[in-house]
Amino acid sequence: LPDAFLRRCVFHFIDFPTPDLMQRIVDVHHPGLGDALAKQSMEIFYEIRNMRRLRKRPSTSELIDWIAVLKAAGVKDLKLDSSLPYLGTLLKKEQDLAAFADQIAGGPRYRS
Questions:
Q1: Which pLDDT value is given to residue 61?
Q2: What is the spatial distance between Cα 43 and Cα 84, in angstroms, rounded to a whole number?
Q3: Which of 26, 40, 48, 99 could make an S-S bridge to 78, C-beta 3.0–4.6 Å?
């Protein structure tokens, strides 16, 4: 945003929700979500969020939407791999999808 606009704004930083708080947020939006899907989706969400080279890290709204899509599709089990279902719900930029694929494949930038 341009500086002239930002000078007229008040900035307040809010920490990203901890996994416990995020679980409570998910419970409000998806009551009765199975324990396995809730745990797996949250773990995968935070792993993806912590990946390097992402231009836009997935936020709370992306997690809520992703879980809604997973439920609607009847997904019961998740695994962090190249076949992760509905990844485009979490990652919105083509560069982020490529970074995810590279990291999952163990690309040279990610080997220890």
A1: 97
A2: 13
A3: 40
